[in-house]
Design a protein that fits this description.
The complex is a heterodimer of chains A (317) and B (248). Chain A has 317 residues and is mostly beta strands. Chain A has one helix at residues 242-249, and strands at residues 8-10, 24-27, 31-32, 35-44, 50-54, 61-67, 85-86, 94-95, 102-103, 107-111, 115-120, 126-129, 137-140, 145-146, 149-154, 161-171, 179-188, 194-201, 218-227, 236-240, 258-266, 274-277, 282-283, 290-291, 294-298, 302-314. Chain A has 3 domains: 1-30, no CATH class; 35-125 and 302-314, Immunoglobulin-like; 128-298, Sandwich (Jelly Rolls), CATH 2.60.120. In chain A, strand 23 and strand 24 form a beta hairpin. A 4-stranded antiparallel β-sheet of chain B has the order 3-9-5-6, with no helix packed on it. Chain B has a 4-stranded antiparallel β-sheet with strand order 12-18-14-15, with no helix packed on it. A 3-stranded antiparallel β-sheet of chain B has the order 4-8-7, with no helix packed on it.
Chain lengths: 317, 248
C-alpha cells in the first residue's frame, strides 16, 4: 500500500510520484547507513598487533575497516600493493610458496558495545626461508657427523659435546631488516635446559654442507641464550637473530636470494643435550600447516595502515 | 545541544519529534554513503578489472561478485575480503578500484564519495537548480563539497531494504543455512556474525579458521546463504543488512 506521508527524493530524471524504490535517492520508507565517525591509524609490530578504537555508542555499531594487505598481496596476480581492501583480508590460510605451507597472516576485525578492533595475525608481514635438503644442515658429536638433525649440549658423562649448523635457502631480502628470528624443531630429549651460542656463517652465499662447516668464518654478532626445559619434544624453539641476520645482509657481496647459515654450539650444558630436527617438519594443526624449522624476518616495524568507518546504525544484538 | 534547524526524518512508526538517532532514517548531522560511480560487468580471461575514479583520495566502496566454488553459478558474494578462496579480491587507492575475479563471472561495484578515513577533500558535484541538498551542521548551503553534505539528490544513497538477526544452534563446523529475504531481486548485502554469545561481532566472511563464525555468504534472488564453523551446540548469530540496490 502506498503511504501518503514521509519523504521521497527521486534521482534526476525520475518522477518522485511514479518512480520505483531503486529510482529514489532516498525514501523515508528505508533506513540508511548513517556515518558516525571515521579515522585512520597504523599498526606497528612494536606496539602490538591489535588496535582498539573506542566508539562511545554504548551498543554494537555497524562498522567497516579498510586496510592494506601484506606482501602476499603484492604478487604478480593480485598486485594490490598499497591498495585498501575491506577487512577481513585473506580469510583462508594460504599457501604462499614452497615448501607447501600455510600461514596465519590475515587481518580480522570485530566490534563490541565499547570498541571496534582490528588485528593482524602473527605471520602478517613476515617472509620465510627454509632448509631444502640434508646438505643444508650438519651435526657433529666430536667423532661422527650427522645430517637432517643435530644436537646441542653434552651426554650425561660429559662427552661428547654436540654442535650443529643450519642453512636456509633463498633469503629474499637485502639492506637490513627490522627483526629476524630462527625456529628449530625440538626432536628429542627436549625437556632439558640447554644453553646455546649462535653465530652466523660470515659468507655472502653459503654453500651446502658437503663437508665440515664449523671452521668457516663466523659473524661478529652472536646470540647467547638458553632453551628452556619447558620446550619439549614437538615444539619449536624460536629466538631473535636480528643482529646476525643484518651483519650478513651488510656484507658487500650479499644479494637477495642468497643462502644464509647459522652455527649453534653448546654454551655450558650440565645435563643431556637437546636434539633438533633441521629437515622440514610441519606443524599440521589444521588449518595452519607451517614448517617448524625456519628463518623468518620482518622488513619493517610498520605492518599496515588502516581506515575505519563507524555508523550510527546498531547491530541487532 | 538540540538543534532546531536542519532535516530529520524518523523511521516509520516513530514520531520525528522524539525519535532518537537510531530511530531516524536520516538526520543531517550524519553523512550517507553517496554513490559517485557504479557499474557492472563480466570478468575476462585475465580476471582483472580496473575502474578509474580519479577522486584523489581513497573512497568507500562495495563490490559484489558471482562465485563458482561449491556454491553454484549465479550466487553472489560480498567482496569484503581478500578472498583468495574464490579469487575475489577488491582494493582501492586514490585513483582506481581494482577487482580480481574469475573468467565469465559477473561483478557489481559501488564507489562512494565518502573517503575511508573522513579526511576532508575537494570532491565536488555540479550544482543543479532542482532537487534537494542538505548540509551537515556548520556548512553553508552554497558549499559544493559532498563531504559537507549529508544528502544530495544528484547522488544515490545505499538504502536499507531489510535488516535482521538470525540466531541458531550450530549443527557443527561446516554447517550451512539459508535466510529467505523475500525481495525478489539479488540485493547487495553485508553481514556480521557472533559465536557462543562472546560479544564479538566479526564483519563479513571472517569467521572461518579464526573465530568459527561465518566464513562464506552468498545471495541470490531468493535467499541469503551462509556457511560457518561454529562448533556443534554453540549459538551462532548473524546480523544482516540487505540493500534496495542490487548486487550483480
Amino acid at each position: 500500500m502506498s503511504k501518503d506521508y514521509g519523504i521521497r527524493v527521486s534521482k534526476p530524471g525520475y518522477s518522485v510520484l511514479t518512480g520505483t524504490d531503486p529510482q529514489m535517492v532516498m525514501s523515508s520508507k528505508f533506513d540508511n547507513l548513517k556515518i558516525h565517525s571515521r579515522g585512520s591509524g597504523t599498526i606497528y609490530d612494536s606496539t602490538g598487533r591489535t588496535k582498539t578504537i573506542a566508539h562511545g555508542l554504548g551498543y554494537v555499531p555497524v562498522f567497516l575497516f579498510h586496510s592494506q594487505g601484506d606482501a602476499f598481496y603484492s604478487n604478480a596476480f593480485t598486485d594490490m600493493s598499497g591498495k585498501y581492501m575491506i577487512a577481513p583480508i585473506q580469510l583462508e590460510a594460504t599457501d604462499i610458496g614452497s615448501p607447501y605451507h600455510y600461514y596465519n597472516r590475515s587481518t580480522i576485525c570485530w566490534a563490541d558495545s565499547t570498541n571496534i578492533y582490528i588485528k593482524v595475525q602473527d605471520d602478517f608481514g613476515y617472509n620465510f626461508a627454509f632448509g631444502g635438503n640434508e646438505t643444508d644442515n650438519f651435526g657433529e658429536d666430536g667423532d661422527s657427523y650427522m645430517t637432517g638433525w643435530f644436537g646441542v649440549g653434552i651426554e650425561t658423562d660429559g662427552s661428547p659435546t654436540y654442535k650443529g649448523a643450519l642453512r636456509f635457502n633463498d633469503v629474499n631480502t637485502s639492506g637490513s631488516v627490522y627483526k629476524a628470528s630462527i625456529g628449530i624443531y625440538v626432536a628429542y630429549a627436549g625437556g632439558v635446559t640447554t644453553p646455546v651460542k649462535t653465530w652466523g656463517i660470515d659468507e655472502d652465499n653459503t654453500g651446502g654442507f658437503g663437508s665440515h662447516p664449523f671452521s668457516r668464518d663466523r659473524t661478529t654478532a652472536y646470540v647467547a641464550n638458553t632453551k628452556d626445559s619447558g620446550l619439549g619434544v614437538g615444539s619449536t624453539w624460536a629466538y631473535d637473530v636480528t643482529s646476525i641476520f643484518n651483519e650478513i645482509l651488510g656484507r658487500a657481496g650479499w644479494s637477495s636470494g642468497n643462502h644464509m647459515a647459522f652455527v649453534m654450539e653448546d654454551n655450558g650444558s650440565t645435563v643431556n643435550a637437546t636434539y633438533f630436527e633441521t629437515t622440514v617438519n610441519y606443524n599440521d594443526g589444521f588449518p595452519f600447516y607451517t614448517p617448524r624449522t625456519y628463518l623468518k624476518w620482518l622488513s619493517s616495524n610498520t605492518l599496515t595502515n588502516y581506515r575505519y568507518t563507524i555508523f550510527k546504525n546498531k547491530l541487532s544484538t | 545541544m538540540a538543534e532546531d534547524y536542519g532535516l530529520k526524518i524518523s523511521v516509520e512508526g516513530v514520531s520525528v519529534l522524539s525519535a532518537t538517532d537510531l530511530q531516524t532514517a536520516f538526520k543531517n548531522d550524519s553523512s550517507l554513503l553517496k554513490v559517485v560511480q557504479s557499474g557492472t560487468g563480466t570478468f575476462g580471461v585475465t580476471g582483472i578489472v580496473t575502474v578509474t575514479h580519479n577522486l584523489g583520495y581513497v573512497p568507500q566502496f562495495l563490490v559484489f561478485q558471482e562465485v563458482s566454488y561449491d556454491f553454484g553459478n549465479g550466487d553472489v558474494s560480498i567482496v569484503a575480503t581478500g578472498d583468495v578462496y574464490d579469487q575475489a579480491i577488491a582494493g582501492a587507492d586514490t585513483t582506481t578500484l581494482k577487482l580480481l575475479g574469475n573468467n565469465g563471472k559477473s561483478y557489481q561495484y559501488y564507489i562512494f564519495y565518502e573517503s575511508v578515513d573522513g579526511t576532508s577533500h575537494s570532491a565536488t558535484v555540479s550544482s543543479n537548480n532542482y532537487g534537494i541538498k542538505v548540509m551537515k551542521p556548520g556548512y553553508a548551503i552554497t558549499s559544493t563539497d559532498l563531504e559537507n553534505q549529508s544528502l544530495n539528490s544528484e547522488k544515490n544513497n545505499l538504502k536499507i531494504a531489510l535488516t535482521g538477526t538470525l540466531s541458531v544452534t550450530s549443527g557443527g563446523a561446516g554447517d550451512t543455512g539459508e535466510i529467505a529475504h523475500g525481495l525478489s531481486y539479488t540485493p547487495g548485502f553485508i553481514l556480521w556474525s557472533q559465536v557462543n554469545n562472546d560479544g564479538k561481532w566479526y564483519f563479513g566472511n571472517s569467521g572461518g579458521w579464526y573465530s568459527s563464525g561465518v566464513y562464506a555468504s552468498y545471495v541470490d534472488s531468493v535467499n541469503l546463504s551462509y556457511y560457518h564453523n561454529a562448533p556443534a551446540g554453540q549459538n551462532l548469530k548473524i546480523y544482516y543488512v540487505l540493500f534496495v540496490e542490487n548486487s550483480v
